[in-house]
Amino acid sequence: DNIITTFFNGLATTGMASNYTLLTTTLNSLLNQIFNGLTASIGNYNVTETKERQYSMFKFLNMMNFWIFSWASIGILCVSNDLVKLCFGESYVLGIEIPFVIGLNFYTVGMQNAVWTFKQTLGLFKYGKYMQVFTALFNIIFSVLLGYKYGLFGILLATFIARLLTNLWYDPYIVYKHGFFKKPIEYFSKYFKYLIIMIINVVICAFLCKFISGNLVMSILIKCIICSFIPNIVYLILFFRNEEFKYLISLIRKVFEILKRNRIKINL
Predict the structure, then answer these.
(1) Confidence band for 72, pLDDT divided at 50, 70 and 90
(2) Which whole number is the average pLDDT over 145-155?
(3) Residue partners of 205: CB distance under 8 A and separation at least 6
(4) What is the DSSP string of 74-119?
(5) Are 191 and 169 within 8 A, CB to CB?
(6) How does pLDDT run across 7-34, given as a tens digit for each residue?
(7) DSSP labels, 109-153
């Protein structure tokens, strides 16, 4: 992407875009530590538990995946321009379409974490072993075509299109069909349900953030509060009755019970 961006738009645009991707790369590194740390535990869980319990764990991780990455993506869309302005200056701020497509790429990759974790731990390695090659080819082709016409936005959008045509649908299909022995439509229907919920949150947060002005630091702080408060309240209202959220509450209770027992032992 950087090579093609430099070719069509010059090195200066590549540098300006890197200010935004630095934010998403940092967030990705932090959030991916959670799922990387879970891989061994999920692998052990898949060996010892039934398919139904494996599927329940997958649905729980997928919901948490959505919760975390959609929340972060909304923040990227609504706050990244102000952060770049604060850190590098107003001349380095790009149009709102750039944070939008960067947030879109961030979200779609993040939403694959649960799928990739289970694909790896269920040993489904032989399926799609050449898919990354096709993703790369599509990325190059669409980056050149869209980059020529739309510049940086087209190049970043090409990355999303390349994933959409390949692993965004193929990997979940494999995990459901050969891992859980269930219809993949169950995953895609939940995926679109999550997507609609996220779009609603984006619209609300973007609308409210539009009215925030004045001191830049205070504006960033208020926008961060809005982009944290609104999505989490919406998720709590929508998810508190479902199976995955009840499992989350049970995990939190177990953690508190363990902490309480350990504190009692220390006091004794």
Answers:
(1) very high
(2) 91
(3) 74, 77, 78, 226, 227, 230, 231
(4) HHHHHHHHHHHHHHH-GGGPPPTHHHHHHHHHHHHHHTTHHHHHHH
(5) no
(6) 887 877 888 888 888 888 888 888 877 7
(7) HHTTHHHHHHHHHTT-TTTTTTHHHHHHHHHHHHHHHHHHHHTHH
Which of residues 197 and 40 earns the better pLDDT score?
197
- CB 74 within 8 Å of CB 205: yes
Dihedral Cα 88, 89, 92, 96, nearest 10 deg:
110
Token duo for residue 6: 């430099």
Quick one: DSSP state of residue 49?
Answer: S
Backbone phi and psi for residue 144, each to the nearest 5 degrees, phi listed first? -65, -45
Retrieve residue 64's tokens.
């948490």
Residue recorded with tokens 């959670």 = 34
Structure tokens at 40: 């061994």
The residue behind tokens 């991707």 is 21
Indicate the pTM of the whole model. 0.90
